[in-house]
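User: Quick sanity check before I run a bigger batch. Here is a single chain. Can you write out its predicted 3D structure?
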Amino acid sequence: MSPIFRRKATTPARAPQDRLVTLIRKPGCHLCDDAQLVIEKVCADLGVSWEQKDITQDKELHDKYWEQIPVVLVDGEQHTFWRVNEDRLRKALTE
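Assistant: Done. Predicted structure follows.
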């Protein structure tokens, strides 16, 4: 008897234009500035919306992420922190 393999249920791929990248940052953070440059480039290339949030203005974000700044979320889920890899972000937004 052979085993039965089931395909994992997946959600349909979303078009890049339907995605949202969030940069969680704080003022005076050079890594945050570097991350923003990568996000701006990738999002402009793909037509993806992006936003930034300041942890000094949001206690919940501060408590959750203060040791990981900058943090990048894709559609509300943590994608990376500290350094943003352009190719990895691009792949996450197109697959």
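The longest helix spans residues 30-46.

User: Great, the batch can go ahead then.
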